[in-house]
Design brief:
Keywords: Hydrolase, Magnesium, Metal-binding. One of its GO terms (molecular function) is inositol monophosphate 1-phosphatase activity. It is an enzyme of class 3 (hydrolase). 36% of the residues lie in helices and 29% in strands. The chain is an alpha+beta fold. Helix 4 (157-170) crosses helix 8. The longest helix has 17 residues, at 35-51. The radius of gyration is 18 Å and the shape is globular.
Length: 263
């Protein structure tokens, strides 16, 4: 998986150098894809099919490829942070997870521009290259930096209002909020203690699968914001175990904002 991520990263690095020549198309409102995404995905698919014939795939661009081996499937985002990439911002990643018998087993997130490989395997810890990762130890929300993601243009008005309420609840109670534009890296950075926490709603499995393994193996806690299944809804909250209930409380508190006024 690391070799596949590195090979895709080489292709992305070449394309990033000539970003103005890429063909860009729209999959939906503010949902862009370029030939850089497709090229990187094909490289990962070819690498992993050769290394593990028969495994299935869930890929952002190509979709589902059923394998003959029903226990194992890779979950692939060839380029997480497409919008950054297309705007010449060097904050994007390759994200690959392996799910075995319905459980996330391994995760690799490769930050191409910084040449950082974040990887984790259940029971083996989380690593940045060969340094073991641990989530941040901070317990005080007021000292914490929390990452998030904005709902994209085209989402319901309600999802934008929910986001505004959540930010309104978080800004006075934390040291700062960040929106860097790659959910996979937000989770990898939470695993590495660069962020104290991360929340975002309605992500896709390929945005978060690898990052979930990283955060768990770095000693962090992952939950679904409203109590459902995180890979199903993609609404995720990640942090250390001390901050987690405090962040949950802020998100619950956010849900009550404006309610009185609208009755
Ligand atoms: C996006 C990034 C972003 C998140 C979006 C995702 P993409 O993935 O993870 O941080 O806010 O919701 O769609 O499309 O660049 O792979
Ligand atoms: Ca996309
Ligand atoms: Ca993504
Ligand atoms: Ca993507």
């Amino acid at each position: 998986m690391i070799a596949a991520a590195r090979a895709a990263g080489r292709s992305l690095a070449r394309d990033f150098g000539e970003v103005e020549n890429l063909q860009v198309s729209k999959k939906g409102p503010a949902d862009f894809v370029s030939n850089a995404d497709h090229r990187a995905e094909e490289i990962i698919f070819t690498h992993l099919t050769k290394a593990r014939p028969g495994y299935g795939f869930v890929m952002e661009e190509r979709g589902i490829v059923e394998g003959t081996d029903k226990s194992n499937r890779f979950i692939v985002d060839p380029l997480d942070g497409t919008l950054n990439f297309l705007h010449g911002q060097p904050h994007f990643a390759v994200s690959i997870a392996l799910e075995r018998d319905g459980e996330l087993l391994t995760g690799v997130v490769f930050d191409v521009a910084k040449n950082e490989i974040f990887w984790a395997e259940t029971g083996r810890g989380a690593w940045l290259d060969n340094r073991k990762l641990r989530v941040a130890a901070r317990r005080d929300l007021h000292e914490s930096v929390i990452a998030t993601g904005t709902p994209w243009h085209g989402k319901s008005e309600e999802s934008h209002v929910t986001f505004a309420r959540e930010v309104a609840a978080m800004t006075p109670t934390t040291a700062g909020i960040r929106r860097n534009g790659s959910a996979a890296l937000d989770l990898a950075w939470t695993a590495a203690g660069r962020f104290d926490g991360f929340w975002e709603r309605n992500l896709q499995p390929w945005d978060i699968a690898a990052g979930i393994v990283l955060v768990r193996e770095a000693g962090g806690v992952i939950s679904e914001i409203d109590g459902g299944d995180v890979l199903q809804t993609g609404s995720i909250l990640a942090s250390n175990s001390d901050l987690h209930p405090k962040l949950e409380k802020q998100l619950r508190h956010a849900a009550s904002f404006g309610k009185a006024a609208s009755v």
